[in-house]
Amino acid sequence: METTVLVTVGLLAGLALAGLVLFAIRWRTPVADPAAAQATAQAAAEQTAAAQLADQRIVELGARVQAMGELLAKAQTQLQSSVQERLDAVTAHLGTSMQNQTKNTTENLQKLNERLAVIDHAQKNITDLASQVTSLQSVLGNKQSRGAFGQGRMEAIVQDGLPKGAYEFQFTLSNRTRPDCCIFMPDKRPLIVDAKFPLESVTAYREAGTEDERKAAATRLRTDVAKHFGDIAEKYLIPGETQEMALMFVPSESVYAEIHDGFDDIVQKAYRARVVMVSPSLLMLAIQVVQQIQKDARMREAADLIRDEVGHLMNDVGRLGERVRKLQQHFNQSNDDIRQAIISIEKIESRSERIRQVEVGELETAAADRGIAGTVRKIQAAE
Prior knowledge:
The protein contains nine helices and five strands; from the N terminus they run H-H-H-E-E-E-H-H-E-H-H-E-H-H. The protein has helices at about 1-25, 35-140, 145-160, 200-205, 210-235, 255-260, 265-270, 280-300, 305-380; strands at about 165-170, 180-185, 190-195, 245-250, 275-280.
């Protein structure tokens, strides 16, 4: 577009310059000398011919400029039409792209909002879990709180597995000691269950970085566990009063597994001291065994009562048999009486039938007599 305008302006400038030259040639001042005049006339003729030629060329140039202008106008019109069409196509494509982009952006924002909601919910759960972990860490960091935690978990397992009266927490023994739990067995000797939680020594053993630290932590763990089951055996195992074996409850499956798998010598020493270490799952299993033992004991205690009740039941069954047999005799007698009654009814029905037949014959004879008498009366009336 700009190139076309520049070409047009250049052509018009050339035409204006040629006109000025022609005007200057025509209006030049004449010379007085004849030879010069002749020369001037010849020059004027030449100039006239040149001017005519220039005019002709100007006319041709004007025609060419006009044709070129028309061509440029036509090209400009076509260019404008093409540009307009392309602009319309680009505008339509841009509008479609913007609509699709807006739709995709809306869908992506919606999905992003959904994912953000899920992330917010997960973040809330993580925050709650972190607070719970922090609370649990604060509980496990204090020895008294840790002991209360282990005792509470042990009490929950016992309460869920045994009926009331079959156990007692903080029961006082004859030596004035009070274990965490006493489970009363059928022989009235309680089974001692005491909760211990050697978390610090186990944690130190797990976090040991060097071999020396690991050995020191293992020694500390052996000492702590040996002290725990030693205290249980010394305080709570009373010959003739308690069971011969006690349970040391470790309220963590991982801690129990760490001790049981890595310190077999400690486990064997505990067995020899008549103390058995149990995890929560093993304590639940032990409670189920105790529950079955107590159930069997109750069944044995009730065996005499069951035998007496079975004897009474057999007496009742014998009396029921006698009464059924008597009822059968009455029923047979009733059947015989009913049979005799049916025979009497049949005889009565037979006699009634014979009587009915006699009555029917007499009625038929009387009817015949009445018919003969009527015929005689009709004959007499006719005579």
